[in-house]
Design goal:
Elements (H helix, E strand, L loop, with lengths): L1 E2 L9 H5 L3 H6 L3 H12 L4 H38 L15 E2 L5 H9 L10 E5 L6 H11 L3 E4 L2 H17 L11 H8 L2 E6 L2 E8 L2 E4 H4 L7 H31 L3 E6 L8
Parallel strand pairs: 1-2, 3-8, 4-8
Antiparallel strand pairs: 5-6, 6-7
Helix pairs in contact: 4-10, 5-6, 7-10
């Protein structure tokens, strides 16, 4: 489990200086973050430093508040899935291993995690839990570099796929997407339109139905990121937690059988999938 309120990754100054500011910021990673932090902390103007610390504190509080709200919604969604029999109430979960990321580089965090993995073993699943901003995404990227035959799994695109289909269903039936529309029967129907497997040489989710015949990889940056999908995700996600967890669990099992190492980001309340 990755935890900690902040991370400091030391990057050689000459490496960063060799890149333009645009190149650094465009990376959208730990290097970008620390370049911004270093800039403000080394500012000659005290007012800028004070302002930066103030803004950082506000942003941190906002992230923590959003994480708490998301965790509460996730827990409610899981309970709904248990109540309708989609998920079991009692499961056996492996013990978690805590990694304090404070002051560690992404390489050091990844190496600490890999030290707990049997050498040479394939078909493993590593689940990273942690709050926003603790470096889960950066660590996953490092783990993917260090592990052979490794892929990442995110439930985000799966929730978006359900939202895309639910939105299309309501549009075709000329009804508003409300909680009452998301019945067990409809969700089962929508789930049947999603298929995980190896397509065109890569693992992907195929979407077939309601006018769609495509793959998640082809629309993840377009239709799945549309404003309509984004606004309906909270409602759809509340009632599809169980379906998403079961779908993810099946997909991960399929990849494990193929000897693929799977890296998952998640929350403690939703680790059924692993």
């Amino acid at each position: 489990r990755v935890h900690g309120g902040s991370r400091t990754i030391h990057k050689r100054v000459d490496d960063v200086a060799a890149m333009s500011l645009f190149e650094v910021i465009s990376q959208q990673n730990a290097v970008s973050t620390n370049r911004v932090i270093d800039y403000f902390l080394n500012e000659d103007e005290d007012n800028n430093k004070v302002l930066f610390v103030k803004v950082a504190a506000i942003e941190t509080d906002s992230i923590l508040k959003r994480d708490d709200e998301d965790a509460e919604k996730l827990s409610k969604g899981i309970q709904i899935a248990i109540d309708k029999g989609v998920l079991d109430a009692n499961i056996d979960v492996e013990p978690t291993i805590e990694v304090d990321v404070l002051g560690k580089s992404s390489d050091e965090v990844a190496d600490a995690i890999l030290s707990q993995v049997p050498s040479g073993e394939n078909g493993i699943v590593i689940v990273l839990q942690g709050l926003s901003g603790t470096g889960k995404g950066t660590t996953v990227a490092k783990l993917q570099q260090k592990l052979s035959n490794a892929v990442t799994w995110s439930n985000g695109n799966l929730f978006r796929s359900f939202s895309l289909l639910a939105t299309a269903y309501c549009k075709q039936h000329e009804i508003e997407l409300t909680e009452s529309v998301l019945t067990g029967e409809l969700l089962h129907e929508l789930e049947g339109m999603l298929q995980f497997g190896k397509f065109n040489g890569i693992y992907d989710i195929k979407i077939t139905g309601l006018g769609f015949d495509t793959y998640v990889s082809e629309i993840e940056l377009t239709e799945l990121k549309s404003a309509v999908v984004s606004t309906t995700i909270p409602t759809v996600a509340k009632f599809t937690q169980g379906e998403v967890v079961k779908f993810a669990s099946s997909a991960i099992s399929l990849m494990r059988q193929d000897g693929v190492n799977v890296l998952v980001e998640g929350r403690a309340v939703s680790i059924w999938e692993a």
